[in-house]
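Dear support,

We are seeing what looks like truncated structure output for some complexes. This example has four components. We would appreciate it if you could run it in full and send us the complete token output so we can diff it against ours.
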Amino acid sequence: MSTPTLRDVAEAAGVHAATASRALNPETRRLVNSDTARRVIKAAEALGYQPNPIARSLKTSKSGTIGLVLPDLTNPLFPPIVRGIEDVLGPAGFSALIVNTDNDPAREQQQVMTLRSRQVEGLIVATARLEHPLLQQLHEQGVRMVLVNRRTDDLDVPSITPDDARGVELAVEHLVKLGHTRIAHLAGPQSTSTGVVRARAFHSALRGHGLDDDPALLVTCDYWSEEEGARALRQVLDGGAEFTAVVAGNDLIALGCYDVFAERGIDCPGEVSVVGFNDMPFLDKLRPPLTTVAVPHHQIGVEAGRMLLESIHEPDRSPRSVFLPLSLVVRGSTAAAPASRA
Amino acid sequence: MSTPTLRDVAEAAGVHAATASRALNPETRRLVNSDTARRVIKAAEALGYQPNPIARSLKTSKSGTIGLVLPDLTNPLFPPIVRGIEDVLGPAGFSALIVNTDNDPAREQQQVMTLRSRQVEGLIVATARLEHPLLQQLHEQGVRMVLVNRRTDDLDVPSITPDDARGVELAVEHLVKLGHTRIAHLAGPQSTSTGVVRARAFHSALRGHGLDDDPALLVTCDYWSEEEGARALRQVLDGGAEFTAVVAGNDLIALGCYDVFAERGIDCPGEVSVVGFNDMPFLDKLRPPLTTVAVPHHQIGVEAGRMLLESIHEPDRSPRSVFLPLSLVVRGSTAAAPASRA
DNA sequence: TTGTAGGCGTTATCAA
DNA sequence: TTGATAACGCCTACAA
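Here is the complete output from our reference environment:
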């Protein structure tokens, strides 16, 4: 015999299915005589009754699932965020459906369609670009969502991001204390809030320390990747401007620098110091171990999960945005500036 | 107005809902006049009709979801497998629900319950232990599943694993060619097929090359972790037996060796060579870059997805197991054996 | 080839 | 407090 249904339980308890439903659902249990309730619950246990969430969904039009839109799960940034989200969602009875967009808007659109057709009750989105028509449109359609890591311009949607500006300040401060005065920035894509905010914070940090802000020391990467990081560093190097330190847009870009160091025989941190951003796993095993800004990824997930649950349960709350505090992890890729050759 | 239903489409096309259903479903389209079909399809497009998979599930008792049981998504091994699975499942109309067990059997049981209550149509399981009562029980209950990475004893369930034995052979062969004769193995947990198979293959490879198989050169790790790897290597070192190379159970264990090298001032590969297993990302950025056995993780996912689909669509096929070929990636952590000090 | 009717398992509404 | 009834959106015998 197959799995017992509510009817079976009701029958076993000698009540109507509707009553059994009420007794089994904590929300409505108070509507039923506590003796009957007990009886129903006991019957349910005896039969090993498991409610069928699909039938429930059909009736309530609540799927108990949310969608998680990532660029690429393979980026070590995301798994801890996913775990954080699930740690909050699971106990609340929700499951996450994960999709990867590979930064392809067409694919993203298609994947979001899939999620919506599966009736997700909300979206956690890690792929936001500053201009993002799809998100705009979803928002207008009243789709509940929370942005993580990145934000979108002019869109009143809650977001959970690291305090990127503060992270860059920490990095610059650290380098300045080590005596660096000529610092380059390999910025991330300027289509993302992360890329823009970090670059802007970099400039203002330089000015804050009274350093000059040489345009030759800023290169923008088209992707958050090693290849782009390498390309960007080569470009600075080939430009001929002097510098003794690099603030990389993120760890992958910093790893690209390592490739160029090897390629050109540059000593890090002897000749050039590097700071990354994110604190990916295993960075301490590199040579030199990478100094970087640690982002509380798990926490980002937790907060995002909470915020989405909140907006599901209290749809009228006005959206808040959260900036999570960051810390600098000093390792071996940064050292005192070499004696000035000027 | 909310999302259009099948009825709306039918009405728009001037047919009955049943006809619309038949027209929209490729399986049954041939039952309907091709003109009517065209009309229905056009109406569906005009309205932006999306079938409600929940309603469909309730009727067909097919959820279109499968469960993916992982120890921990945060282990870089798994994301590529997940992507591989989704690459196959997505186009087939399935979505994956991912759960993490943290290697805790109680948590695993609870998570699997959740998955089953969500009516997943099958399970892909990466947490198999050799003795695994839960899997045994699920199998007896007729739950469709595919094992990845690891297998289970005495259970007639399809599995997709790397050809672990061959991988170890490749590693040992490589070391022998470099002149190593005293080789240690830091084995993974012997509760997993992976740990056992690799250890067994290690012994037989040594014998195959006529080397002696000193028990002092084998230590078993309780977990696949850096900490355990470090502990195991210290144990070999402290045992005093001579050796010039290590075959680590996996990359994390190898990373633990790096910690011990740093701690004790041992030169790798000058004094000791190390080979890992898995080829995690960024291993080429370590110092020295880690020589390791590359496992086709994405492909494992693809094959697992395919096999699960197969067993869903043709339940009577007898289970097959697949061993995927491996290759050795030679990097900087292995070098010629130092001149014998004997 | 198309329509009718019934039901998948649950919950919401109404009446008793 | 409980029961009867209908409905969520879809699919599928069966009948026409």
